[in-house]
Amino acid sequence: MKRCVRWLKPLPLRPRDTVQVVAPAGPFEQAPFEAGLRILSERYSPVVRPDIGASHRYLAGDDARRQEELSHAFLDRASRAIFCARGGYGSSRLLPELPIDKAGPVAFTGFSDLTSIHCALQALHRVSIHAPVLTQLGRQSTQVHDYFFRLLESAEAPPPLTGNATYVPGTAEGTLVGGNLSVFSRLLGTPYMPPLDGAVLLLEDVTERPYRIDRMWTHLRLAGVFSRVRGIVLGDFTACEEKDANYSSADVLRELARDAKLPCAAGFPIGHGAINYPVALGTHVRLDADAARLTFLEGAVSPG
């Protein structure tokens, strides 16, 4: 099914292009950040503010610092992409003043708490990349690195990804939206919710006990989300088990998915697990839940 609305894609990156590194959410440990920065520097030319390591309570500096840094990154026409240091919490605090409607075709990348910025971009019909943050990038395999760089540099559709479980059989085709379940659910009722009609919804999370996953999923159901999307892609739900319970988070998710009665496959290597493959939110995909396969029907970036 063709999309009626034209989505704005980032320009393709080239080796040695200037890219911005920002910390719009939580503070980070220096060692994993530097490991990720080394990998990024081997391919591109990152620009890092000297105060990126700031810390204010549970944030990477106060709102003014983070706002200025991220706003500059979005408005800098010399940069082709934005890479985030870490998730955590804090990016949603910046949404009302972010000039993303004035931003050029820059590739915004990140995941977890950065879901709030992804959703705000999708609300404006802009494509962005759900991908490792720098503190996670150093732990990823060369296969993930290569997939990431290919996604950013080639206008061709990337290879499909495969999950490990079918929760509800069927196929669904639509625009990929979503990200972290906890952050996504907090955007209900705000102007930053992406277009849901006919979409394929991606969800992942970390350290959320099964009853909390149930509560957030139920919030989405009560808000009518599952009556609007066409299918559900479940990434990693990392460290989401209840101690000494006779059920797993997968058991809870399987039951919730069956109640939603939408094609749903689980176990995709997307999120907080050991492997976090990047995917382009805002692009057209096909979910074959029977085969637990997510096929990308277009590339993440424009032809140039």
Describe this entry's structure for a reader.
This protein has 304 residues and is an alpha/beta fold. It has 2 domains: 16-151, Rossmann fold (3-Layer(aba) Sandwich); 159-294, Glucose Oxidase, domain 1, CATH 3.50.30.60. The chain is built from 8 helices and 14 strands. Keywords: Carboxypeptidase, Hydrolase, Protease, Serine protease. InterPro entries: Carboxypeptidase_A_C_sf, Class_I_gatase-like, LdcA_N, Peptidase_S66_N, Peptidase_S66C, S66_fam. Belongs to the peptidase S66 family. This is LD-carboxypeptidase.
Stated plainly, the CATH topology of the largest domain is called Rossmann fold
Radius of gyration: 18 Å
State the fourth-level CATH superfamily of the largest domain: Murein tetrapeptidase LD-carboxypeptidase, N-terminal domain
The largest sheet has its strands arranged as: 6-14-13-8-9-10-11-7
How many helices does DSSP assign? 8
Architecture of the largest domain in CATH? 3-Layer(aba) Sandwich
Uncertain stretches of 5 or more adjacent residues? none
Number of strands: 14
3D shape? globular
Q: Measure the end-to-end span.
A: 25 Å
> What count of domains describes the coordinates?
2
